[in-house]
Amino acid sequence: MARVTYGGGVTEFAGSIGGVTFLRNASGPIVKLRSNPPVNPSPDQSTYQTILALLVAHWPTISQANKDTWNVIAAAHDHTTPWGETKTLSGYQWYLSCNLFRYAYYGTITDGSYAWQAPAPPDSFTIEVDPTYIRCAWSPNYDPTWSLFVYASLPLRQSSIKLRRSLFLIKRVLDLGSVANYDITSEIETLFNVDWGTFYASADCSIIIRLRHGLISQGWMSAFTSAIVKI
Questions:
Q1: Cis peptide bond upstream of 119, omega within 30
Q2: Which CATH fold topology does 126-230 show?
């Protein structure tokens, strides 16, 4: 990065030329080389990219009758994102959305849509912590109908807490049954690469836990229910 001084009737440049970007910051006009960092997807990202490519290639091979089942879903129902936002999808997009989840766990594609399902988000919960555990807690007890997916953020400093942090899927729970709490200590230890007791003693951070509820065999998923805890 270099400082720029204009003269001779030129007062300012803006934009990029040949990889060089002209801009302004608190110090005044500057020029710098435009960065072009390499893209190194995580193992999970690579897996989903592979599945997505497979699904895109498979779509032209399915019958029009099966495509129509997805178009019927698209015409009748909006899609709710993990963040609770409502979006209108095409039949093709519904096919991709449902099969991305299904294929990741079952290794098979459903050509036609199943009957519409709209899993409710998990019940509201709190995060309970002490030197021996971190767990999700419900009052009254929670009994999910289908699979429960548990996501966690990395440790967050107070100055960096934002709603949409990077999340990591740490657990998929089948047949949880009626529970007052669910322990995720070992999963957090694995994600953070720490001993929980040692981490708890000096963490000075916050952790976000988000839960999703879904019928994974058919690809229907709920929005997140979230909680945050200060440690």
A1: no
A2: Immunoglobulin-like (2.60.40)
